[in-house]
Structure formats: C-alpha cells, structure tokens
Amino acid sequence: MALYFAYGSNMLTARLKARCPSATALGAVFLPDHDLAFDKISADGSAKATLAVAKGSRVAGVLFELDEGDLGALDQLEGTGFGYDAARLALPWQGAPVFARSYIAPPGFRDAKLRPYDWYLGLCVAGALEHGLPRDWIRRLIATPRCPDPDPARPRRIEADALLASCPAEWRLS
C-alpha cells in the first residue's frame, strides 16, 4: 500500500476513486512549509492546483491510502514528467511523520496569469468540505479567482459536473 497527499480536485473521494479504485481516505492532514497555488498550466488552457515551498505556511489536504498499482495509474493521469513531478512529502500523521506521494508543477509549467475553471475549483471545495478541512481553508479556496470553461462538451467538465451533482448541495460553488 502507498500513501497519497491530495490537495486539489483529488480530495473529493469519488473523483479519486474513479481514477484509483483502491483509494481509501485516512483523513485531513497539513503539509508544513508549503503553500497552495492555482497556477499549474493545464492542457485545457486553465490552471490547476500545485504546491510551492513557503516557510511557515501550510497546506490542508487529505491523506489517502491506495494500492501501488493505482499509484502508477495516478502518475500517468497526473502527467508525471509532463506538467507535474512526483514528490515524496513528509507529513505529520497521528503524532509521527509519514511519507506520501504527491505532485508538484516545476517552474516551467506554471503561469500566474491562468485561472482554474469553475468546475475544477468546485471539485476542490467539495473535497475540502467532504473531509472537514478548516473553514478558513475552505473560504480561501472559495475566494480563489476562477473562470468559466468555454467548452461545455469538455469530457473533464462533464465528468466533474456529474460528480458535483451527486454531492450535497452545500458542497457546491454557486
């Protein structure tokens, strides 16, 4: 079994399980000395979430356990080597450090002018609410500048809309 730290759209258990059927949420966790940024360049022209080193800051997310085979599939889905680099992060968990896989965009794959699509940010917020992340963290996510997706037929958008429609109404961005 492997550990995975989700901090973006994969925090929503249904989204991650659709990609990695063995995924089991262990709970909320905080990555020290990092910050969250929505500036990872995506092939769809929008921004996705990534991590940046930031002494004294912390990122709220969800720790998942999954099979090694699913970890390989996740590497492929996240575009390891083509936008995200796989990272081994130390996280405090139940009084001891654990190491978990996550993904970080290298400098050449970041653009601060980009915005996440509303559906992508909606997945992030729904996942944060599902796992009881702190209200101030959820408010920060909700306040992130976002833009509408210009392509109503985009497969990722259709998938996200279906996932969000199955969530409680209070988990959805308005």
UniProtKB/TrEMBL annotation:
Query: What does UniProt list as catalytic?
Result: 78 (proton acceptor)
**Mind telling me which Gene3D superfamilies this protein's record contains?**
Gamma-glutamyl cyclotransferase-like
Annotated residues for binding of substrate: 4-9, 120
The entry lists its GO molecular-function terms as:
gamma-glutamylcyclotransferase activity; transferase activity
Q: Which UniProt keywords apply?
A: Lyase, Transferase
- Pfam families of this UniProt entry? AIG2_2
Record's keyword annotation contains Lyase? yes
Against InterPro entries, the record matches this protein to: G-Glutamylcylcotransferase, GGCT-like, GGCT-like_sf
Q: Which domain of life is it from?
A: Bacteria
- Record has Lyase as a keyword: yes
| Stated name of the protein | Gamma-glutamylcyclotransferase
Lineage here is: Bacteria, Pseudomonadati, Pseudomonadota, Alphaproteobacteria, Rhodobacterales
